[in-house]
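Propose amino acids for all 109 sites.
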Protein backbone atom coordinates (compact mmCIF):
# COMPACT_ATOMS: atom_id res chain seq x y z
CA UNK A 1 0.00 0.00 0.00
CA UNK A 2 1.13 3.55 -0.72
CA UNK A 3 -0.25 6.72 0.82
CA UNK A 4 0.37 10.30 -0.26
CA UNK A 5 -1.15 13.66 0.60
CA UNK A 6 -1.91 16.01 -2.29
CA UNK A 7 -0.56 19.03 -0.42
CA UNK A 8 2.86 17.32 -0.13
CA UNK A 9 3.21 16.82 -3.92
CA UNK A 10 4.65 19.74 -5.95
CA UNK A 11 3.21 21.06 -9.21
CA UNK A 12 5.74 20.97 -12.05
CA UNK A 13 5.17 24.66 -12.73
CA UNK A 14 5.37 25.84 -9.12
CA UNK A 15 1.76 26.94 -8.59
CA UNK A 16 0.30 25.27 -11.71
CA UNK A 17 0.61 22.36 -14.10
CA UNK A 18 0.83 18.65 -13.39
CA UNK A 19 1.50 16.95 -10.08
CA UNK A 20 1.68 13.19 -9.82
CA UNK A 21 0.14 11.39 -6.90
CA UNK A 22 1.29 7.95 -8.08
CA UNK A 23 3.59 6.90 -10.94
CA UNK A 24 3.69 3.27 -12.06
CA UNK A 25 4.01 0.41 -12.09
CA UNK A 26 0.67 0.08 -13.95
CA UNK A 27 -0.74 3.63 -14.14
CA UNK A 28 -0.11 7.34 -13.64
CA UNK A 29 -2.53 9.22 -11.37
CA UNK A 30 -2.35 12.92 -10.74
CA UNK A 31 -3.80 16.41 -10.70
CA UNK A 32 -3.42 19.23 -13.19
CA UNK A 33 -4.08 22.83 -12.13
CA UNK A 34 -4.77 25.26 -14.98
CA UNK A 35 -4.91 29.01 -14.35
CA UNK A 36 -7.58 31.18 -16.02
CA UNK A 37 -6.82 31.73 -19.71
CA UNK A 38 -4.25 28.89 -19.82
CA UNK A 39 -4.22 25.41 -21.34
CA UNK A 40 -2.94 22.05 -20.19
CA UNK A 41 -1.10 21.60 -23.52
CA UNK A 42 -2.34 19.58 -26.48
CA UNK A 43 -0.86 16.11 -26.83
CA UNK A 44 -1.75 12.51 -27.60
CA UNK A 45 -0.59 8.98 -26.83
CA UNK A 46 0.03 6.01 -29.10
CA UNK A 47 -1.01 3.40 -26.52
CA UNK A 48 -1.99 5.16 -23.29
CA UNK A 49 -5.63 5.93 -22.54
CA UNK A 50 -6.42 8.83 -20.25
CA UNK A 51 -9.40 9.67 -18.06
CA UNK A 52 -10.05 13.16 -16.67
CA UNK A 53 -12.35 14.22 -13.82
CA UNK A 54 -13.02 17.92 -13.20
CA UNK A 55 -12.75 18.76 -9.49
CA UNK A 56 -12.94 22.58 -9.57
CA UNK A 57 -13.39 25.39 -12.08
CA UNK A 58 -14.81 25.52 -15.57
CA UNK A 59 -13.39 25.26 -19.04
CA UNK A 60 -13.33 23.19 -22.19
CA UNK A 61 -12.08 19.68 -22.88
CA UNK A 62 -10.73 19.67 -26.43
CA UNK A 63 -10.48 16.30 -28.18
CA UNK A 64 -9.28 16.11 -31.78
CA UNK A 65 -10.20 19.79 -32.19
CA UNK A 66 -13.76 19.46 -30.86
CA UNK A 67 -14.61 21.42 -27.69
CA UNK A 68 -16.78 20.11 -24.85
CA UNK A 69 -17.90 22.14 -21.79
CA UNK A 70 -16.17 20.92 -18.64
CA UNK A 71 -17.08 21.65 -15.03
CA UNK A 72 -17.08 20.00 -11.60
CA UNK A 73 -18.33 16.43 -11.76
CA UNK A 74 -17.64 15.96 -15.49
CA UNK A 75 -15.52 12.98 -16.54
CA UNK A 76 -13.90 12.39 -19.93
CA UNK A 77 -12.34 9.20 -21.30
CA UNK A 78 -9.81 9.78 -24.08
CA UNK A 79 -8.53 6.66 -25.86
CA UNK A 80 -5.29 6.59 -27.83
CA UNK A 81 -4.49 8.18 -30.25
CA UNK A 82 -6.95 11.06 -29.78
CA UNK A 83 -5.20 14.41 -29.26
CA UNK A 84 -6.47 16.28 -26.21
CA UNK A 85 -6.12 19.52 -24.30
CA UNK A 86 -7.95 21.41 -21.55
CA UNK A 87 -8.63 25.14 -21.76
CA UNK A 88 -9.52 27.10 -18.65
CA UNK A 89 -11.81 29.81 -20.02
CA UNK A 90 -13.29 30.51 -16.58
CA UNK A 91 -12.48 33.14 -13.96
CA UNK A 92 -10.89 30.81 -11.35
CA UNK A 93 -8.36 27.98 -11.24
CA UNK A 94 -9.39 24.72 -12.87
CA UNK A 95 -8.34 21.53 -11.07
CA UNK A 96 -8.63 18.21 -12.89
CA UNK A 97 -7.69 14.68 -11.78
CA UNK A 98 -6.31 12.33 -14.41
CA UNK A 99 -5.49 8.64 -14.72
CA UNK A 100 -3.29 7.27 -17.50
CA UNK A 101 -2.91 3.58 -18.23
CA UNK A 102 -0.86 1.57 -19.00
CA UNK A 103 2.20 3.11 -17.40
CA UNK A 104 4.28 4.21 -20.39
CA UNK A 105 5.82 7.59 -19.46
CA UNK A 106 7.48 8.09 -22.87
CA UNK A 107 4.23 7.53 -24.84
CA UNK A 108 3.39 11.14 -25.71
CA UNK A 109 3.28 13.07 -28.95
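Proposal:
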Amino acid sequence: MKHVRESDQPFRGGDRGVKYMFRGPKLDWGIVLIKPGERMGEHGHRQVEETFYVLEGRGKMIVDGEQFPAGPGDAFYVPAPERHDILNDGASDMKVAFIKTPYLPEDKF
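The two ends are 32 Å apart (CA to CA). The chain has a mean pLDDT of 97.
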